[in-house]
Design the sequence.
C-alpha cells in the first residue's frame, strides 16, 4: 500500500478567535500557524479597521491589540459568518464604537436574528433590515443576561459570551446540546472569569490578557483526505497535527459506526488536544446514523460524509441537520444536486438526508454553489471517480488555500 502524509491546514475557527480575542485584549501576541484564507483575511481586515496593528511574517502573525476603538467604520466580513457573528457580539458591548458590518451576497442572506435578538434583549443597539447584513452596531453598556440557546450554534454562543466581557453584570449561556468550545477554552486561557458547569457557561465581566500560541490543524479540512483514504482502494493517508477537541471530532464517531480503519498517533495536549490521524482503505463500510447530539460535532463534515454514505453497504441517515440550509449555501440542496449528478441514491427532507449505497460515476460537471465545503467534496469525488469538473472551485480558498498543493502531493503518490 502506498502512503501519503499531509499536514492539516491551521484551524479556521481557532484562527478567527485568536485574531479577534487578541485584538480586543489590547496587548501584544504572536500567533504561529495562523490560517491565511479568504475568511481569516477578512477578520484581519476588520480588526485593522478597528485600530488593531497586525503584521504577518509567513504564517506567523504579530498582533498589537486595540488601544482605542476606531468608530464609524465599515467592516467587510466577506463570506465569513464567524467574523460577522463574533464581531456583532464583541462590538455590541464597546461603548462609543459604532460600526457597520457588511458581507458578500451569501453572507448577506444568512440569518443574523439569532444573534441580534438576544443581544438586543440585554440592551444592545443593533439596526438592520429584517435582521440581515448590513448590520449597524452602536456599542452600549450591556446588562446581565441569562440565555438558553434555541439552536446548537457555536457562533451564537460565542457572540453572547463575548458581549458579556464588558457588560455591567454576568452572562449565563445554557446550551442543551454542546457545540464547539474553542471560545470557552481560549477565553479561559486569556484569563477571563468563565466557569463551565454542565450545560451552563457562566462569564463575569473580564479583561482579557493577550495569548501567544501555535494553532493546531483543522479536522474539518483533514476530513476530506480521511474520507478519501477510507474509500479509495490501496490508499493510506496520515494527516499530521489535527485538532481532536471532542466537540469537533464527531467524524471519528461516524468512522467507528462505519468500521473505517483509522488510528490516532502522537497525541499531545497544549491548549487543545492534537493527533496525527491515519486512515486506511476499508473494504466493507457499514451505513451510519447521525442525529441531533452528534450534528454540532461534525456540522461542517456533512458534505464529505454524504459522499462516504454512497460507499456504505446499506442506507445511511443524517437527521436533524436543518442548520445546513443556512450555511455558505443551502448545503442540503447543494449536496443532493451534486451527488445526484454522479448517480447517487439520495433524498432530502427539510431537516434530513437519506443516502443509500450507490453506483457512482464520474464524467459530470457540478456546481460549487460558491461553497468551499461542497467544492472540496466534489474534488475528492473526482479523485475517486474521475472526470468531474467543479465549476467556481476557487471558493476552496475560504478554508483550505493549500488544497491544490496537497492535491499535487497526492497525485505524486497515487498517479
Ligand atoms: C463555527 C461554527 C459553526 C461552523 C462554522 C464555524 C465557529 O457554525 O459551521 O463553520 O467557528 O464557531 P454554527 O455555530 O453556526 O453552527
Sequence:
Amino acid at each position: 500500500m502506498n502512503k501519503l502524509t499531509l499536514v492539516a491546514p491551521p484551524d479556521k475557527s481557532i484562527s478567527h478567535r485568536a485574531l479577534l480575542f487578541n485584538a480586543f485584549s489590547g496587548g501584544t501576541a504572536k500567533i504561529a500557524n495562523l490560517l491565511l484564507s479568504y475568511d481569516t483575511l477578512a477578520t484581519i481586515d476588520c480588526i485593522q479597521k478597528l485600530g488593531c496593528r497586525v503584521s504577518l511574517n509567513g504564517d506567523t502573525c504579530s498582533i498589537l491589540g486595540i488601544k482605542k476603538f476606531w468608530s464609524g467604520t465599515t467592516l467587510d466580513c466577506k463570506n465569513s459568518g464567524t467574523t460577522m457573528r463574533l464581531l456583532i457580539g464583541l462590538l455590541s458591548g464597546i461603548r462609543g464604537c459604532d460600526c457597520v458590518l457588511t458581507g458578500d451576497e451569501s453572507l448577506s442572506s444568512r440569518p443574523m436574528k439569532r444573534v441580534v435578538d438576544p443581544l438586543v434583549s440585554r440592551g444592545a443597539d443593533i439596526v438592520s433590515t429584517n435582521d440581515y447584513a448590513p448590520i449597524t452596531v452602536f456599542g452600549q453598556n450591556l446588562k446581565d443576561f441569562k440565555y438558553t440557546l434555541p439552536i446548537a450554534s457555536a457562533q451564537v454562543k460565542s457572540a453572547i459570551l463575548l458581549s458579556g466581557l464588558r457588560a455591567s453584570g454576568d452572562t449565563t449561556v445554557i446550551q442543551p446540546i454542546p457545540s464547539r468550545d474553542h471560545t470557552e477554552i481560549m477565553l479561559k486561557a486569556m484569563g477571563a472569569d468563565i466557569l463551565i458547569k454542565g450545560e451552563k457557561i457562566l462569564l463575569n465581566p473580564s479583561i482579557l490578557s493577550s495569548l501567544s500560541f501555535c494553532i493546531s490543524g483543522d479536522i474539518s479540512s483533514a476530513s476530506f483526505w480521511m474520507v478519501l483514504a477510507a474509500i479509495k482502494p490501496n490508499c493510506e493517508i496520515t494527516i499530521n497535527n489535527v485538532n481532536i477537541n471532542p466537540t469537533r471530532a464527531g467524524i471519528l464517531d461516524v468512522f467507528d459506526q462505519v468500521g473505517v480503519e483509522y488510528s490516532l498517533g502522537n497525541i499531545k495536549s497544549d491548549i487543545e488536544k492534537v493527533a496525527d490521524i491515519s486512515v486506511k482503505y476499508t473494504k466493507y463500510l457499514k451505513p451510519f446514523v447521525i442525529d441531533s447530539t452528534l450534528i454540532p460535532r461534525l456540522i461542517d463534515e456533512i458534505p464529505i460524509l454524504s459522499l462516504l454514505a454512497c460507499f456504505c453497504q446499506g442506507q445511511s441517515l443524517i437527521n436533524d441537520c436543518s442548520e445546513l440550509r443556512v450555511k455558505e449555501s443551502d448545503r442540503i440542496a447543494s449536496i443532493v444536486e451534486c451527488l445526484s449528478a454522479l448517480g447517487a441514491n439520495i433524498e432530502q427532507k427539510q431537516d434530513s438526508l437519506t443516502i443509500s449505497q450507490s453506483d457512482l460515476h464520474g464524467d459530470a460537471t457540478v456546481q460549487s454553489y460558491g461553497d468551499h465545503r461542497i467544492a472540496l467534496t466534489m474534488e475528492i469525488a473526482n479523485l475517486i471517480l474521475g472526470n468531474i469538473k467543479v465549476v467556481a472551485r476557487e471558493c476552496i480558498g475560504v478554508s483550505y488555500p493549500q488544497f491544490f498543493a496537497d492535491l499535487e502531493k497526492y497525485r505524486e503518490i497515487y498517479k
Q: What stands out?
A: Residues 12-25 form the longest helix (14 residues). The longest strand covers residues 235-243.
